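Before a colleague's protein record goes any further, I have to sign it off. I want your independent view on whether this chain really folds as the tokens say. The record follows directly below this note.
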Amino acid sequence: MRLPLPQFANSDRHPNHIAEVIETTTTEFLAQCLEPEDLSFPSMPPFGSWVCAVDEESGNQVYAVVYYATTMPVDSVHRAVALGLSLQDLREEQPQIFAMLKTEFRAAIVGFEQASLTLGANQRVYQYLPPRPPQIHQAVYRCESEAIIKFTEELDFLRTLLSVNSAPVESLTAAAIREIYQLRKADRQWLIQAGRTLSVLLKDDYDRLRFILSQIHP
């Protein structure tokens, strides 16, 4: 049975610090969301949203896309049961419920930003797997808009998304593109280039390409 993460003073936490790595592999990591200050469920990152975590040993900032999220009891033996109460009723009548549940998400690693060794030099972005993923207990952050825009200047990350195992990759790819398109303030030229990149990657699978494009609404 997994125990809840120890919670530290939220006043010292960066507003984008939403979770902590609890399992890690070369291609992805599992993170547990941090508990909010009030009686509510942890904020579950949206499907296709971008998160990042720093590998403290190398200094690399690792970028990943959320492809799975779940809320479940901390105690793996007992399942949650329907109570027929609203969230407000739960806060008033069953406040212990919030301490008995945890929210976790899995994120597929799509690249990294290498720490610069020269003061003032631009950090270089790589759209392939880093030498190592973020390690256990490293903080996970919601990505800033500027960081996502910078990372997605190139589109090689789409190949990585299309090869994610155990995920609805077509819907994941479309969701990631939709979010980037919104952050880029409806940059149609970028969207056209993304569509062209997908058409090359899926040149032998028109059905998959059509399914992805059908979920993108410019």
